[in-house]
Amino acid sequence: MIWRPFACLSSALFFLTMGLYWGDNIFYWLFAVIMALMALSLISLLGLAFGLEYRQTLDQAAVTRGETVRLRLAIKNKSPFFYPRVELSVITNNTKFEGRPQEHTLSLPPMREREITVDLPCDYRGVYSVGVHSCRVFDSFGLFYITLRRVSRCPRLRLAVWPQTGAAALPRLSTRNDAPADRARAGQQTGEQVRDIRGFRPGDSPRRMHWKASARTRKWMIREFDATTHPRYLLMLDTTAAVPGEPELRRAAQIESLACDCAFSLAQEALLQNAAASLRTPRQGGLDVSRPADLAAIRRLLCEIPFNCEPNAAAARLSELLARQTRRGDTVCLIAHSVPPPLETALCQTARLELPVHLFWVMPEPGHTEQLNRLQNARVTVRILEAEHGA
After folding, report:
1. How many Å apart are CA 366 and CA 389, to the nearest integer?
2. Quick one: which of 157, 127, 135, 133 has its CA closest to 56?
3. Range name among 48-62, 223-237, 365-379 with the lowest pLDDT average
4. Measured between alpha carbons, how far is 131 from 148 in angstroms, rounded to an integer?
């Protein structure tokens, strides 16, 4: 498109030269027409740059991985005289995997509005900024254009892709310790094991109700039990996947999405089993799950975990967490794609403490048979998760 204004300007100079040489008025008229056309194009372009109205909406701002969201972009031409052509550059949730934004071209009649619909398949969990990236506006004659890099009147939209559920099932809580299995259930502990009495919160189990205190205070009161006698699931999540860059970026996103799916499924199932659970990550800290309201915080945490491409640093951090936060009665569940030697040593040491250790191995690389045998010999239960949520 750059050659068009130069061609018009060259033609205008040619007719002006011919008019000066031959003295014929027709050449001057042609020169005037071309210059008027270029001036009209510039004036219309300046008017169109500030005479377009943008609007964009998402069907849903938060969806579960695997669903499809529809992005609607509407542009209105408020000018009653000009008929521009517009090229839109749209950022989607798959732009970083495709390497470039999507391009859309449309013509805008005067005082009319056009709408573009973009389907966004949400294959990978995360938080994305979607919407118009830049807008290239052409004048009615196609001679000039102006590129608006940041459309201030059309800010980006936030799209959150949550983890799926059902990626894995929890093993049964351990009964190796001196507490029998029925003591793992809320409400089965004896009075000497009650740590505190507090007010009722939404999501608390009615089986933990303290009836005498409720009758005395005329408020619903809940018993909190000593953590040492209440078995829990300790969920350790490592989203280290692969080196960023094509073609490994899609596989890395698939691995860490499946790992987050597994962590969220385990936390949800622990709550359904009326058991305590603690989620720990190398970089984001962690959260405890004790009531349904905690699932929203867990889902938000898993959605916002960034890519982690430092496996050795993550393994060292997870090994430290295993040594510090593991306690009697825990069932340790590690969700990871790779198990470096420091992390493997920490898992084996934890298993030697008579604690059940489960490894949810997410899409392991080929050649992991020898490491798998070592872990199983150390009494670490290994489950392999593939892309289709198979175990």
Report:
1. 18
2. 157
3. 223-237
4. 14
**Region at 282 (left for phi over 0; alpha for psi -120 to 50; beta for the rest):** alpha
- From the CB of residue 70, how many other CB atoms can be counted at a distance below 10 Å? 12
104-155: pLDDT as tens digits: 998 888 888 999 999 999 999 999 999 988 888 888 788 888 887 766 567 8
Helix (H) or strand (E) holding 116: strand 113-121
Q: Are strands 52-58 and 68-77 parallel, antiparallel or unpaired?
A: antiparallel
Q: Which helix (H) or strand (E) holds 6?
A: helix 3-22
Residues 144, 138 contacting (CB under 8 angstroms) = yes
List CB contacts of 142: < 8 A, sequence separation 6 or more. Answer: 1, 4, 85
pLDDT digits (tens, 9 = 90+) for 2-25: 667 888 888 989 999 999 988 889
The first and second tokens of residue 294, run together, are 């905690």
Residue 222 contacts residue 209 (beta carbons within 8 Å): yes
Q: What is the pTM of this model?
A: 0.74
Classify 25 as helix, strand or coil: helix
What's the sign of the alpha-carbon dihedral 256, 257, 261, 262?
Answer: negative
Please provide the DSSP assignment of 131-187 as one string. Answer: EEEEEEEE-TTSS-EEEES--TTS--EEEEEEPPS-S--PPPPP--SSS-GGGGSTT
First and final C-alpha spacing in the chain? 55
| Burial of 130 per CB tally in 10 Å (0-12, 13-18, 19+) | buried
Residue that the structure tokens 């219309």 belong to: 44
The secondary structure of residue 38, as a DSSP letter, is H
Q: Which residues pair with 160 in a beta bridge?
A: 62, 127
Residue type, 260: C
Read off the pLDDT of each residue in 43-47 and give the average, rounded to a whole number.
Answer: 81
- CA nearest neighbour of 125 among 237, 252, 294: 252
Q: Is the pLDDT of residue 359 over 50?
A: yes
